[in-house]
Automatic annotation (TrEMBL):
Gene3D superfamilies: 3.40.630.30
Localization in the cell: Cytoplasm; Nucleus
Described purpose of this protein according to its UniProt entry: Catalytic subunit of the NatB complex which catalyzes acetylation of the N-terminal methionine residues of peptides beginning with Met-Asp, Met-Glu, Met-Asn and Met-Gln. Proteins with cell cycle functions are overrepresented in the pool of NatB substrates. Required for maintaining the structure and function of actomyosin fibers and for proper cellular migration.
Organism: Paramuricea clavata
Matches recorded under InterPro entries: Acyl_CoA_acyltransferase, GNAT_dom, NatB_acetyltransferase_subunit
UniProt GO molecular function: protein N-terminal-methionine acetyltransferase activity
Recorded catalytic activity of this chain's protein: N-terminal L-methionyl-L-asparaginyl-[protein] + acetyl-CoA = N-terminal N(alpha)-acetyl-L-methionyl-L-asparaginyl-[protein] + CoA + H(+); N-terminal L-methionyl-L-glutaminyl-[protein] + acetyl-CoA = N-terminal N(alpha)-acetyl-L-methionyl-L-glutaminyl-[protein] + CoA + H(+); N-terminal L-methionyl-L-aspartyl-[protein] + acetyl-CoA = N-terminal N(alpha)-acetyl-L-methionyl-L-aspartyl-[protein] + CoA + H(+); N-terminal L-methionyl-L-glutamyl-[protein] + acetyl-CoA = N-terminal N(alpha)-acetyl-L-methionyl-L-glutamyl-[protein] + CoA + H(+)
Keyword Transmembrane helix: no
First-tier enzyme category under EC: transferase
Boundaries of every N-acetyltransferase domain copy: 2-154
E.C. number: 2.3.1.254
PANTHER family linked to this entry: N-ALPHA-ACETYLTRANSFERASE 20 (PTHR45910:SF1)
Name this polypeptide is given: N-alpha-acetyltransferase 20
Length: 175
């Protein structure tokens, strides 16, 4: 049995098994604490019956609430390798989308490595589209592009937020 519950500060000492995956971005403790304090409703963990962290999601709401750019953002969603294919990422994403709906966001967006085909395909199955390509988004060796993927929420009745851009952008051009 899996429990989806709010991410707590104590979980920062228990989620190393999840962050061992090479495609998972690992941040400094201050980064996680900022999310937990500013956007706690966007931070959840999936926990096993024996108390192990199976996966987590952290996100936020950003943009101007009065404008069509007001949106939920998935900063990180990941599931430990031994707990994949159980639908945990889908459940965590659904919960974040529901939080964004309650906050009256127009859409949810996320960035994913272009090379991470498994994740890109999962997001497509969840209703996300590639809105734009962001060149050299991930620094490292070699630099890698990201897809900015989006899913319209009910406030975006015409799905304007999902109309793809025709040309790639640079990281500094991302709002």
């Amino acid at each position: 049995m899996t429990t989806i519950r709010p991410f707590t500060c104590d979980d920062l000492f228990k989620f190393a098994n999840v962050n061992l995956d090479p495609l998972t971005e690992t941040y400094g403790i201050q980064f996680y604490l900022q999310y937990l304090s500013r956007w706690p409703e966007y931070c959840q963990v999936a926990e096993s019956r024996d108390g192990r962290i199976m996966g987590y999601i952290i996100g936020k709401a950003e943009g101007s609430e009065e404008r069509e750019q007001w949106h939920g953002h998935v900063t990180a969603v990941t599931v430990a390798p031994e707990f994949r294919k159980l639908g945990l990422a889908r459940q965590l994403m659904t919960n974040l989308e529901e939080t964004s709906e309650r906050k009256k966001c127009f859409f949810v967006d996320l960035f994913v490595r272009v090379s991470n085909e498994v994740a890109v395909n999962m997001y497509k199955r969840l209703g996300y589209v590639v809105y734009r390509r962001v060149l050299d988004y991930y620094s490292g060796d070699p630099d890698e592009d990201a897809f900015d993927m989006r899913k319209a929420l009910s406030r975006d009745k015409d799905k304007k937020s999902m109309i793809p851009l025709k040309h790639p952008v640079r990281p500094e051009d991302v709002e």
